Amino acid sequence: MDAPAAQDPGQDVFLLACGAFASSVALRLCDPILPALASDFATTVGQAAIVVTAASIAYGVFQLLFGPLGDAFGKFKVIAWACLASTVGALACALSPNLEVLAAARALNGATTAAIIPLSMAWIGDAVALDQRQATLAKFMSGQVIGLISGQLMAGFFADHFGWRWAFALLGAIYLWVGLRLLASLHRHRQPVATADSLVGASASGRIGLVLGNAHARVILAVVFFESMTSIGVIAFVPTFLHHRFDLSLFHAGAITATFGLGGLGYTLFARRWVRKLGQGRLAVLGGALMGAAFLLLILAPAWGLAVVACMVAGLGFYQLHNTLQTMATQMTPAARGTAVSIFASCFFLGQAVGVSVGAMVVDHVSARWLFAAAAVMLPLLGTFLSRYLRSSAHT
Q1: Is residue 323 in some structural domain?
Q2: 59, 232, 23, 235: which is closest to 144 by C-alpha?
Q3: Is 2 part of a structural domain of the chain?
Q4: CB neighbourhood size of 279 (10 A)
Q5: What pLDDT band is residue 199 in, cutting at 50, 70 and 90?
Q6: Count of domains forming the chain
């Protein structure tokens, strides 16, 4: 377990939020440029979506490495070096000569950036008391949300005006700056490598077994997998849907989809009030219902203006549900918190990979509307299930 920094932890939370910004940009950067990639590499949008799937799978799998590493060697240190390693993956994407190399470079980038957000959440779990944790996680998450917005906008802008490769070059520069700042902060703060709490299980397999042996943790992991599959995995196809249906440029389609992040940012600004007034159970129900309504609106919208509303509502609903799950994840297994949160993130991004893979088949062979319709049904059911589970577990 990393000890809290000697200085104001808020400074460290800000730097970690910057790392989350870069990681979030990386993971959403390809969504608006799938049509451009399909055109450049003479393939279909569904086949080009391999660049999204590759990053998501690598991100999910490498959680199983970074969680135990963070517990054993210090979460903040691993995050700093992961940012610098991610610089290499981003630049490799910019220089890729074909779709196969780009997919491999995206996998590399997904693998290295995998440490940043989950270990940051775990570090906050170590450093911040439980009664302040959800508000602090919301502040940290604002960097992730702004990255989501910026990634969509940046990719669409560069694809339309300079070429998609320059978006990855800029991402590499962002990673480099954040990594150097985190290393500087690490050198100022003398943090121990580990404590007895973080060494429960003695080995990576032992820590993973400790988490997966917890029935409560297994429920949370299953819920976040299906949440990601039916939300983020589906949203990856919204820019393409808007581009084709309303004949919008890639920049404008990406900009509309990026308002998903504005809805999420609205939640982070008022998270403390939402949690106090509604509680976790009601937040879960409301979040699922809002996402379901948003996907229905996308299907029925006669003009692109309503798609803006739909994406913002989807973002608000998603972060209501997901932030509840994040807070629960930091308490799944406190003795191996880095491993627990990393497995949580692994399930999230493996769910996204499955969602994108299934979504690609639906989009190529049927229609994006059917994909959105399935999400509109499943997400409210998921929110209701989580709410009922929270009520039942509170009385056991």
Answers
A1: yes
A2: 23
A3: no
A4: 14
A5: very low
A6: 1
- pTM beyond 0.90: the answer is no
Q: In this structure, what token pair is assigned to residue 102?
A: 């780009």
CA angle 361, 384, 228 (to 5 degrees): 35
Q: Would you say the C-alpha torsion 269, 275, 281, 282 has a positive or negative sign? A: negative
Q: Are 180 and 85 in contact (CB under 8 A)?
A: no
Burial of 130 (0-12, 13-18, 19+ CB in 10 A): exposed
Average pLDDT over residues 114-121: 89
Contacts of 386 (CB under 8 A, 6+ apart): 223, 281, 284, 288, 321, 324, 325
Average pLDDT, stretch 189-200? 44
What tokens does 54 get?
């590759």
Residues 233, 353: contact at Cβ < 8 Å?
yes
Burial letters 201-225, b for 16+ CB under 10 A, else e: beebeebbebbeebeebebbbebbb
Residue range of the domain that includes 59: 9-394
Residue 19 · residue 120 · CB < 8 Å:
yes
